[in-house]
Amino acid sequence: MEKNTTVRAAAAQIAPDLTSPEKTLARVLETIAEAATKGAEIIVFPETFVPWYPYFSFVLPPVLSGREHLRLYEEAVTVPSAATDAVAAAAREHGIVVALGINERDHGSLYNTQLLFDADGRLILKRRKITPTYHERMIWGQGDASGLTVVDSSIGRLGALACWEHYNPLARYALMAQHEEIHIAQFPGSMVGPIFAEQMEVTIRHHALESGCFVVNATGWLTEEQINSITPDQGLQKALRGGCMTAIISPEGKHLAPPITEGEGILIADLDMSLITKRKRMMDSVGHYARPELLHLVMDGRATQPMVGSAHSFQTDTGSNTDGQYDVSADRDSDQRVAVLRSQAR
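The structure assignment produced for this chain is given below.
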């Protein structure tokens, strides 16, 4: 793959439609097209943008959350589906890499899932947030390390984490060790207040510096009407404002354009890929600045399975290895947790 010397990146800070998953998806498709007209080669959307981030779980007690939680089940995305096909088609039509956060439904559980579509429309990564945060644990199941994978794309090597996964240094290091060049970060936005935006900025700038990569971060936005629809309590409404930091950061930790902290918009910036080497010449945290004989990461990258059969449970002529044990890897292509990658991370 020939490397581009410059990549134009876009990060979208837009509001979902809290009443209609179809309208939210339409907003995604419109924004992809708009970013493409501006020359963007990658666009990043906020965390679980489709159909919507479960803001209700942050301000409502669990006993009052049942109806909205069930509605989220009904409107959540399965992979593959008509919704993911539409995003893939838009990526292919406009020749743009798309990073989309979704609420994924897999039978009886929901997951915070990040999807990466290459510019040819192929799904090159599907990963689940490994540990939902605080209130989110009532909503989503846990992901596994099979998604801590950096993938090759038409614009470079891409890695992704959601929200407070960036506070897990080993998760970040797993991506750094695979030499990510562009890191996709996604946060919900419109939460907690200005302190959340400040913390987010520190976090993504630090990752850019430590990893020696670009970071493209997108946060969501709620209108006043939407905030009122989530809760009429004015005290609780304060928890649904602020916390927006849609930003594009260089490997030197600099903003490449003024961040979007209020309202809707698409942030555009050009990534000079030569800055990666410029940064790593001074500090390559997984290369000449590492001491793997003293400190190194051991990661179990297998997809978790709720059941693994023995030789007595399965026919040996179907999905079994030569020892008569059931071969879990035989089912990986049909396992929703594992995307079919263009190429394995090196």
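Interim note for the steering committee: The chain is about 25% helix and 20% strand. The CA atoms of residues 5 and 279 lie 15 Å apart.
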